What does this fold into?
Amino acid sequence: MRYAYYTLAFVTVLLFSVMGFRGMISTRPPIEVFPDMDHQAKYKAQAESKFFADGRADRPVPAGTVPFGRDANQSDPAFLRADDAHYAGKNADGSFVRGFPIEINEAVVRHGQGRFQIYCAPCHGALGDGNGITKSYGMVATPTYHDDRLRTMAEGEIFNTITAGKNTMFPYADKLSPDDRWAVVAYVRALQRSHHGTIDDVPPDQRGGLK
Amino acid sequence: MSKIFPKSANALPLQILIFLGVLGGVATAGITYYATPAYLRVGYQPVQPVPFDHSLHAGQLGIDCRYCHASVEKSATSSVPAAQTCMNCHSLIKAQSPLLEVVRESYRTGDPVPWVKIHNNPDYVYFNHSVHVNRGVSCVECHGKVNEMTVVRQDKPHSMSWCLDCHRDPASRIRDPKDVYNLDSQTLADQGKIADAHKFITDWKVKPPTSCSGCHR
It folds into this structure.
């Protein structure tokens, strides 16, 4: 009987030394003990497809199409993104829109601030002065928002720059929806205004905290 | 007539039963320890086609998770970035690095970078990223401190009982919404603001399902 326990102890130690502990690093895919229905014949997001020649289950947007999903029977400028001022930042004559096609309020500017800090601040800096973290890694040409060229630039042109990119800046249309972009433009305007603010811009009852 | 079995054999049936009991106990302990995702999945750290360093980008540089994983707030899936996202910076920074050739190739041709997926939920689990991150559940709760990982690995078991730990007690895991993408932040409970967590759960109607159909369809 004693030997049965010895054998058990030996097998336990052997198993432990082969299997190791929980959380050990491994480059091999996990073993699936009960793989029932874990892998179903369906496509998940960004998954591989054996059907399409390029191997992608996510299909690219066909050329010349725009997102659909609104009511075609009502007069809705969002339908087919028909409103050029809103979705391209351009007037009918092709010039850039001045002002905003959406209503600007505090919620919009705060939303723009959040988006700006994620997508713009790495290069343009949290203050919009062009001193983002990428500058010290070699992206030295990022301009400041606070010179006259960018302060007088039409809102529509800033919108277009976010949408299509400019010079070394790549487009951000994939990350920012049109309304997100307008919110970011509003926040850029707020940054520019704050940079050139004077004490006269501060309400008198709040000046005490700014000494 | 001599005896066939010695007298000590009388105790043998009991001893065998005890041994089988011990054997069963050891086997149960072994299966409990090894045959669960806590052992099988945690620590999975595949070799990726590009040695992307999260501790540099998300940690040292302080780039927000959403800069690359842009759809996490709006969609069920937290998207893996397109090569263009990399090229936003790497068209100028380390633009000639041989390590980034796979990314440049992907940007030129449109073929995806063959990233290896680490966190693979079974296909019958319908997890939605946006409902979690928009209700104060931080990335770190399920993915660990990715901002400190040079090579990303699975840090949490992602087993069903692990999901339910939080679904049954969301107040102890919820963060202030502004801390969701700050992986070094603490939960409201850890900050001693458990009352705020309960208020958040009431105000935002956080009702994590614990029934089967909440996550399985």
